[in-house]
Amino acid sequence: MTGALTRYRIMATIVGVLLIVLILVGVPLKYLLEEGSGGQELGEFITTYLGVAHGWLYMIFLLTAFVLSRKAGWELGFTIVTLLCGTVPVLSFWAEHRATQRTRAEHPEAFGPAATTAVG
């Protein structure tokens, strides 16, 4: 259980950071600056390459979140919301925090006494 949670938390953080950079930096640079300017070209580079990387890493995120959901015994609704939160900038951080708290609270035996006091 701890390994699945750790993998999920790492992927949620990576996907969340990449999505923020992609949407809040790359897209505005690409579409709001003058065509051919250095900033616009940087935005083009970010959206092209970071967009592809985010897509592939999001697939890994989906897999790690799904594996954790099965091991932790989440119901379908909680699982779907957690999976979809990786598509909205900043929301993946909230979902990761929520999933971590829930998993640690529902499975204290897997995380030891320090984890249960940190959750409460």
UniProtKB/TrEMBL annotation:
The entry's keywords: Cell membrane, Membrane, Transmembrane, Transmembrane helix
Lineage: superkingdom: Bacteria
UniProt keyword Membrane present: yes
DNA-binding keyword on record: no
Domain DUF3817: 5-100
InterPro entries per record: DUF3817_TM
GO cellular component entries: plasma membrane
Subcellular location: Cell membrane
Membrane topology classification: Multi-pass membrane protein
Annotated TM spans: 12-33, 45-69, 76-95
Name of the protein described by the UniProt record: Integral membrane protein
Organism: Nocardioides psychrotolerans
